[in-house]
Amino acid sequence: MNVIEINVLVLAYLGDAIYENYVRKYLINKGISNVNDLQTESIKYVSAKSQAKYLKMLMDSNFFMDDEISIIKRARNYKTTSHPKNCDIITYKYATGLEALIGYLDLTKSNERINEIMNFILED
User: Fold this and answer.
1) pLDDT 10s digits, 44-83
2) Are 92 and 84 in contact (CB under 8 A)?
3) Which of 47, 74, 102, 114 is deepest in the core (most CB within 10 A)?
4) Is 16 a catalytic residue?
5) Which helix (H) or strand (E) holds 106?
6) Number of domains present in the structure of the chain
7) CATH number at residue 77
8) How far apart (Å, rounded) are the C-alpha atoms in residues 20 and 78?
9) What totals of helices (H) and strands (E) does the chain contain, helices first?
10) Residue 108 in contact with residue 21, Cβ under 8 Å?
11) Which domain holds residue 7?
12) Would the CA dihedral through 11, 112, 67, 82 be positive or negative?
């Protein structure tokens, strides 16, 4: 199957796991060794609100290539009415856009590009 044909929510599902893994490794490498502290710190990166904020920062920096913007927009515009209770639908769709892009990049073996995105986010 062509990666571009995969449902964007499936890409986001994969991207969410990869994104969270990057964040967890980053926090552990910072020397945080208490699980409660790790959880508290991770929310600064993995919540939908945080992901939406970082996506907007990346977009404002003209960070993305055309094919990446296409994936983000497909995910953002995907028709869904469900979202977490702790954020609005627009914020959730932006977060989904970032996760879908990371999932897409993983499946296209663009690990260096994922590293560039995550370095931008984690060095903020």
Assistant:
1) 999 999 999 999 999 999 999 999 999 999 999 888 766 6
2) yes
3) 102
4) yes
5) helix 89-107
6) 1
7) 1.10.1520.10
8) 22
9) 6, 0
10) no
11) 3-122
12) positive
End-to-end CA distance of the chain: give it in Å, rounded: 36
Give percent above pLDDT 70 in the chain: 96
Catalytic-role residue among 16, 60, 66, 124: 16
- As a 3-state breakdown, the chain gives helix, strand, coil percent values, each rounded to 5, of 75, 0, 25
Q: Structure tokens of 82?
A: 């469900």
**Of all helices (H) and strands (E), which one includes residue 9?**
helix 8-29
Tokens of 1: 């199957």
| pTM confidence score | 0.92
Please give the single-letter amino acid code of residue 24: R
Spatial distance between the Cα atoms of 32 and 39, rounded to a whole number of angstroms: 10
